[in-house]
């Protein structure tokens, strides 16, 4: 077994710094506008950007911790640190959504004329453009490198953009129709949208913490190779795959003829592992070599495993039962 950890984890912390910079700039913009106008709305807007700053700093810490090398104390590394910041972002998004929903409902019940148009609106448009650009970068890099932390921070910033967009649309609709209730109605829709984003983040990071199996396309790439390598002499069973932050792991039992030397068996699993890593870059594979005719080899198949062969196929029975036990 070789370890793909070193080569497959480029440093992503500079993107957290980008997010920190965006938060600092938007805080400066909003407090500057507040100082000029004395508008309380702008001050609470600035408070929202402070939340972004806190989230970005937490993202930076999470990425730093996740990139720490494995040690005797943490033999598997600390890649799951990314899920903690993603969970926190999900919770922060929920709180933001709650504030928006409560305010919206309150304004639907007690309509009030809009305040803070003019400079307040202009500042939130500029802040939204900055957040929108940074969010797009974070989401793109986060997906490319499977970084939950960057994806979560990108989603968080994008909810701010959607919120500002909602304010603009609401103000525009009220200006067009004169119907005050449209503004809180749009805000309510924005709040619901943010709740959905927040719950997706919380669900995804919880699944990661619970060692969910790899995405279907990765499992398919792995099982395809194992099916291709299945012959009357060599079989596989008990495949388990899991994500751990940006890392992808697989464990599999490799069954080879009882008479093969350790040397030959090892050469075979090294070959298969190499193919798996070529198909799923950075995959960390651990294989367990077993004699194909020993019934004991078939008694250790983990309850939860990824099916290598289709359950209804002949190959499935072949891989789960020793040759003499075959029903066919
Ligand atoms: Zn080896
Ligand atoms: Zn086995």
Short structural summary:
With 328 residues, this protein is mostly helical. The chain contains ten helices and three strands. The protein folds into two domains: 205 residues, Alpha-lytic protease prodomain-like (Up-down Bundle), CATH 1.20.1510; 110 residues, Alpha-Beta Plaits (2-Layer Sandwich), CATH 3.30.70.1350.
Question: Can you describe this structure?
Answer:
By secondary structure, this protein is mainly α. The chain has two domains: 5-209, Up-down Bundle (Alpha-lytic protease prodomain-like), CATH 1.20.1510; 216-325, Cation efflux protein, cytoplasmic domain (Alpha-Beta Plaits, 2-Layer Sandwich), CATH 3.30.70.1350. Helix content is 63%, strand content 9%. It has ten helices and three strands; from the N terminus they run ααααααααββαβα. The protein has a three-stranded mixed beta sheet. It starts with a helix and ends in an 8-residue tail after the last helix. Residues 1-7 have low confidence and may be disordered. Residues 237-238, 253, 290, 297, 300-301 line the site of one zinc ion.
Given this structure, which CATH class of the largest domain is correct? Mainly Alpha
CATH architecture of the largest domain: Up-down Bundle
H/E element order: HHHHHHHHEEHEH
Distance between the termini: 36 Å
Summed up, the domain count is 2
Bound molecules: zinc ion
pLDDT below 50 for ≥5 consecutive residues: which ranges? 1-7
């Amino acid at each position: 077994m070789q370890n793909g950890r070193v080569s497959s984890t480029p440093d992503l912390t500079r993107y957290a710094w980008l997010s920190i910079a965006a938060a600092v700039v938007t805080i400066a913009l909003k407090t500057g506008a507040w100082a000029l106008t004395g508008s309380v709305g702008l001050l609470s807007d600035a408070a929202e950007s402070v939340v972004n700053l806190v989230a970005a700093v937490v993202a930076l810490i999470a990425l730093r911790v996740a990139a720490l090398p494995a040690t005797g104390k943490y033999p598997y590394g600390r890649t799951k640190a990314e899920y903690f910041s993603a969970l926190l972002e999900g919770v922060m998004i929920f709180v933001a959504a709650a504030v928006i929903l409560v305010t919206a409902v309150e304004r639907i019940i007690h309509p009030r004329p809009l305040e803070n148009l003019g400079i307040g609106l202009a500042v939130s448009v500029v802040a939204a453009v900055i957040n929108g650009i940074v969010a797009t970068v974070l989401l793109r890099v986060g997906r490319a490198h499977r970084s939950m932390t960057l994806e979560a921070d990108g989603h968080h910033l994008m909810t701010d953009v959607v919120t500002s967009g909602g304010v603009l649309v609401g103000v525009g609709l009220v200006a067009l129709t004169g119907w005050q209730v449209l503004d809180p109605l749009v805000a309510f829709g924005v709040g619901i949208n943010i709740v959905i984003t927040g719950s997706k983040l919380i669900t995804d990071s919880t699944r990661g913490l619970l060692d969910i199996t790899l995405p279907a396309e990765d499992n398919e790439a792995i099982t395809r190779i194992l099916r291709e390598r299945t012959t009357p002499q060599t079989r596989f069973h008990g495949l388990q795959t899991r994500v751990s932050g940006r890392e992808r792991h697989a464990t599999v039992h490799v069954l080879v003829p009882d008479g093969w030397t350790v040397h030959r068996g090892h050469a075979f699993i090294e070959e298969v592992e190499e193919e798996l890593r070529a198909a799923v870059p950075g995959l960390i594979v651990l294989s367990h070599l077993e004699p194909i005719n020993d019934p004991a080899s078939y008694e250790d198949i983990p309850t939860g495993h990824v099916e290598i062969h289709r359950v209804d196929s002949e190959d499935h029975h072949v891989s789960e039962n020793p040759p003499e036990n075959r029903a066919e």
